[in-house]
Amino acid sequence: MGVLTLDHSDARREQIMLTPKRWRDRTIIRAVHDDDLEQVLRDLGLFSAVVAGEVDCAVCGNPVNLSTVGCLFSKLGEVQVTCCQEKCCAAAMATRSDA
Ligand SMILES: [Zn+2]
């Protein structure tokens, strides 16, 4: 539970999958609560879902909103989000895929 599944058209999916390449050198994005975060979420197609409270932490399952986003990371090609608890970011780092 808590894994955001991306269910969009092929074109949208391609856009989502391409965007993380910009972040290749830092697979895990330590979220910063400013315009940068908003832009990253928009690039990933997650912004509206986060604002709407539709995204859960990939680790603990708590709902994540704009002020509680902790880390964004990709695992097996899917973008996942954790809340701002240190343990959740730590778990994300421990389980992330480097592929
Ligand atoms: Zn969490």
Describe this structure in a few short sentences.
34% of the residues lie in helices and 19% in strands. The chain has four helices and five strands, in the order H-E-H-H-E-E-E-E-H. It has a three-stranded antiparallel β-sheet with strand order 1-4-5, covered by helices on one side. A two-stranded antiparallel ribbon has the order 2-3.
Give a verbal description of the structure.
With 99 residues, the protein is of the alpha+beta class. It has one domain (10-95). It is 34% helix and 19% strand. The strands form two sheets. The protein has a three-stranded antiparallel sheet with strand order 1-4-5, with helices on one face. Mean pLDDT is 71; it is low at 1-26.
Q: Main traits of this protein?
A:
99 residues; alpha+beta; three-stranded antiparallel beta sheet; two-stranded antiparallel sheet; 5 strands; disordered N terminus; binds zinc ion
Major sheet? 3 strands, antiparallel
Strand share of the residues? 15-25%
The rough form would be described as globular
Indicate the structural class: alpha+beta
**Poorly predicted parts:** 1-26
Helicity, as a percent range: 25-40%
Q: Within the largest sheet, what's the order of strands?
A: 1-4-5
By DSSP, the count of extended strands is 5
